């Protein structure tokens, strides 16, 4: 064999055979992907362009007279407070419901229960609002009083307790019920997909049912539960009607969940003020909407980051 | 501590379907017992009934007796969780917990049995179990990596390490090599030969050479037709099964005339 070798001519570019079906599918998938980005960009562009007058206006002209920051800050606090409270209440409950349905309940009960919980998601938010106002708020008044008396040392229960129950606490609980079906539906789905292979591995090692769930189901479903919680949080952050009906808002920022003066939330504030707003007021409301948009985006990115942090251990490889 | 398993008049059901009928067998300690037979004959089902993993499937149940050194595994007060802690199992497809590191996989069973373990103790256990599974040298520098980062053969040995870390009395293996290449298979067979000094091993295999190579006794399962229950046709020393079986069906099967 001679050592010299003529440089082999590079093979002519192989052109993959492209079938019509493939091209149609790839094109429509790509189109859908681009479409959602366009919609998002359009919304962002609208918010920014409409918000600019409020962003550049002198502080006195903004409603309240304390500038845009002074106007939006209590709303941000109110929005986050209600949504986080809802999330804290709903997530453990939803995980419990999902585990019960997937691994504990007899099959017939499980199917019915799943159906009933999904129905919760179909109730219009205005109905939740009236339920919160007419039923939950009065029912929670004694709890408000008790919390102010016995838990008053916590800033959340500083009191004085509201006599109507139309507080951030009530709103948080109404929102919790509203996001419960979203989180539990997704949690149920991921829990039921935990591989039998790993569930049997745990059982064969002598795990009890709960230990099997801890070893093979919860770690597997973790990222799904987080994703579901973030969807729920998104809904809670943006919820308008129920909050607008229940909450007696409009006050300054406070962490007090049970007082009679509560900060409003961004979305409900927009809904309540928009009909009568003119000129710079409209721009201010849109600017607050832009803030909500950014918060939601940040929350989703945070969730994505949490999910990806331990991607090696996700079981997806 | 290896233990003897006595099975008498065992019927195994899926719901109302009788899958395995009338098994009587005595499995010797400190030896390897192989179960062979065509697909669907109930050998895996039988294996899973030995550590009460069969009943994990909804509707599945068992009639008859399985006694391990005098302890009735199916007596009303026997706890399946305890039974499984004494009888370890290795599955057909390697199944290390993907959300756990190699280290955590090995100690997973011990964390269930005995929650408090000192770091030094569990380090020692991990090394001993991984050495026992002939895996230590390959993974000692990456114990914190996920178990799913290993090759298939390594994952299967990790599963064996996990099973022997709890020091069971019996080790059940359900086609442990069917997803592995010949070199990994050889590694596992060598490992089984070492482990049989300390454990009672029962292995289900489709590979008759493997049964002939590793086992002392062999059981042949067969069924008369689809929808019929599987039966233990013959149980004898491996040498006899592969040279001069008592039953015509066994001879037909091992010589490849059917199945």
From TrEMBL, chain A:
GO terms for biological process: phosphate ion transport. The chain crosses the membrane at residues 33-55, 75-103, 115-143, 163-183, 285-307. Keywords: Cell membrane, Membrane, Phosphate transport, Transmembrane, Transmembrane helix, Transport. It is found in: Cell membrane. Pfam families: BPD_transp_1. Residues 76-303 form the ABC transmembrane type-1 domain. Part of the binding-protein-dependent transport system for phosphate; probably responsible for the translocation of the substrate across the membrane. Belongs to the binding-protein-dependent transport system permease family. CysTW subfamily. This is Phosphate transport system permease protein.
Automatic annotation (TrEMBL), chain B:
Pfam families: ABC_tran (PF00005). PANTHER family: ABC TRANSPORTER I FAMILY MEMBER 17. GO terms for cellular component: membrane. NCBIfam families: 3a0107s01c2. This is Phosphate ABC transporter ATP-binding protein, PhoT family. Residues 5-248 form the ABC transporter domain. One of its GO terms (biological process) is phosphate ion transmembrane transport. Keywords: ATP-binding, Nucleotide-binding, Translocase, Transport. The keyword Metal-binding does not apply. It comes from the Bacteria. GO terms for molecular function: ATP binding; ATP hydrolysis activity; phosphate transmembrane transporter activity. Signal peptide: none annotated.
């Amino acid at each position: 064999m001679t050592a010299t070798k003529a440089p082999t001519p590079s093979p002519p570019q192989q052109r993959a055979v492209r079938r019509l079906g493939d091209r149609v599918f790839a094109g429509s998938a790509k189109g859908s992907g681009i479409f959602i980005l366009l919609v998002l960009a359009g919304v962002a562009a609208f918010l920014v362009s409409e918000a600019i007058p409020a962003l550049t206006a002198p502080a006195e002209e903004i409603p309240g007279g304390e500038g845009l920051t002074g106007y939006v800050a209590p709303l941000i606090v109110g929005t986050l407070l209600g949504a986080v409270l809802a999330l804290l209440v709903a997530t453990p409950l939803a995980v419990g419901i999902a585990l019960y349905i997937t691994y504990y309940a007899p099959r017939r009960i499980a199917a019915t229960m799943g159906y009933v919980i999904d129905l919760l998601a179909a109730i219009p938010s205005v109905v939740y609002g009236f339920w919160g106002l007419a039923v939950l708020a009065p029912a929670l008044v004694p709890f408000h009083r008790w919390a102010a008396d016995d838990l008053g040392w916590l800033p959340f229960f500083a009191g004085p307790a509201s006599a109507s129950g139309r507080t951030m606490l009530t709103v948080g609980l109404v929102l919790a019920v509203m996001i419960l079906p979203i989180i539990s539906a997704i949690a149920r789905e991921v829990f039921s997909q935990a591989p039998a292979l790993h569930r049997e591995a745990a059982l064969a090692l002598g795990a009890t049912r709960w230990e099997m769930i801890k070893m093979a189901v919860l770690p597997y479903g973790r990222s799904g539960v987080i994703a579901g919680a973030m969807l729920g949080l998104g809904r809670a952050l943006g919820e308008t009607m129920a909050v607008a009906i229940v909450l007696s808002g409009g006050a300054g920022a406070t962490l007090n969940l049970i007082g009679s003066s509560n900060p409003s939330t961004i979305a409900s504030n927009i809904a309540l003020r928009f009909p009568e707003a003119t000129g710079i007021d409209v721009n201010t409301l849109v600017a607050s909407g832009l803030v909500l948009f950014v918060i939601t985006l940040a929350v989703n990115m945070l969730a994505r980051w949490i999910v990806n942090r331990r991607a090696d251990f996700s079981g997806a490889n | 501590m290896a233990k003897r398993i006595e099975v008498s008049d065992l019927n195994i059901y899926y719901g109302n379907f009788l899958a395995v009928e009338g098994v009587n067998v005595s499995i010797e300690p400190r030896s390897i017992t192989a179960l062979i037979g065509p697909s669907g004959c109930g050998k895996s089902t039988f294996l899973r009934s030995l550590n009460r993993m069969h009943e994990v499937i909804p509707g599945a149940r068992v009639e008859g007796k399985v006694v391990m050194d005098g302890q009735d595994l199916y007596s009303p007060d026997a706890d399946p969780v305890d039974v499984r802690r004494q009888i370890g199992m290795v599955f057909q497809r390697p199944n290390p917990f993907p959300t756990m590191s190699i280290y955590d996989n090995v100690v997973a069973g011990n964390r269930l049995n005995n929650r408090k373990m000192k770091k030094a103790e569990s380090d020692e256990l991990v090394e001993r179990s991984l050495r026992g599974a002939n895996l230590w040298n390959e993974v000692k520098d990456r114990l914190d990596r996920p178990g799913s980062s290993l090759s298939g053969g390594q994952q299967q040995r990790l599963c064996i390490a996990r099973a022997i870390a709890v020091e069971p009395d019996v080790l059940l293996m359900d086609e442990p090599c069917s997803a592995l290449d010949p070199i990994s298979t050889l590694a596992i067979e060598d490992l089984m030969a070492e482990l049989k000094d300390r454990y009672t091993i029962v292995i289900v295999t489709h590979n008759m050479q493997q049964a002939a190579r590793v086992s002392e006794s062999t059981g042949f399962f067969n069924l008369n037709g689809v929808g019929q229950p599987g039966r233990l046709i013959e149980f004898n020393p491996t040498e006899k099964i592969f040279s001069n079986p008592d039953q015509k069906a066994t001879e037909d099967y091992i010589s490849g005339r059917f199945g």
